Amino acid sequence: MDTFLTGFDSAVYILRITLFVVVVVLAIVCLIDWLVRTRRINPFNPVARYMRSTVDPVMAPVERRIVRAGGMPASAPWWTLVLVVVGTLILVSLLDFIRNQIFAIAMSSQAGVGGIVIMLVRWIFGILRLALIVRIVSSWFGMSQYSKWIRWSFKLTDPILLPLRQVVPTIGVIDITPIIAWFLLGILQWVVLGLLRGA
User: Fold this and answer.
1) Are residues 148 and 168 in the same domain?
2) Which of 140, 135, 127, 124 is nearest to 158 (CA)?
């Protein structure tokens, strides 16, 4: 297992460096494309013609979405850069998460059945917390609870939040039950893990 994790860490390290270089190169390309789009570089310049023929078609889907949302087409390079940076951060975070879970599984399996049960309990509480976060963030953006991307978080958190809402009053228009549920989940996890370790 140590050999696998060392190889995995090396691969992730190389991927991080590669992604960093890609983001830096893309930032330079986006800057040049923005300069062309805003006419800070002569549109008849060979660089401008190259950008219009090669780079602009790649950014066309982002540009269409920006225009539909009422934005300026000239901001397409910056939104493309933002999307790539966010995607890169998500990918690196996902790989770190997978690595940590592989390590946790290896350590839990060495501890026997009790270790695996403790790991599963942590996963259950982690998923419930993630569902709370998704539910809260989706409410900020006014997303429908029936959206296929959000529905799962409501199904997991409704059994926790609905009883709390009958007990906990709202503060003005602010619903604090998700915050209380977050802390209650933490306390419950601490109690359950304490009982499992003591058993």
Assistant:
1) yes
2) 135
The total number of structural domains that make up the chain: 2
pLDDT, tens only, 22-52: 999 999 999 999 999 898 888 888 988 888 8
Measured in whole angstroms, the distance separating CA 117 from the mean position of its chain's CA atoms is 27
Contact assessment for residue 34 and residue 74, using Cβ atoms and an 8 Å cutoff: yes
On whether the CB atoms of residues 33 and 56 are closer than 8 A, the answer is yes
Question: Which of 137, 171, 169 minimizes the C-alpha distance to 154?
Answer: 137
Which 8-state DSSP code applies to residue 67?
Answer: H
| In a shared domain, residues 93 and 160 | no
Any residues with CB less than 8 A from the CB of 103 and at least 6 apart, and which? 5
Q: How far apart are CA 51 and CA 49, in angstroms?
A: 5
Q: Output DSSP code: residue 69.
A: T
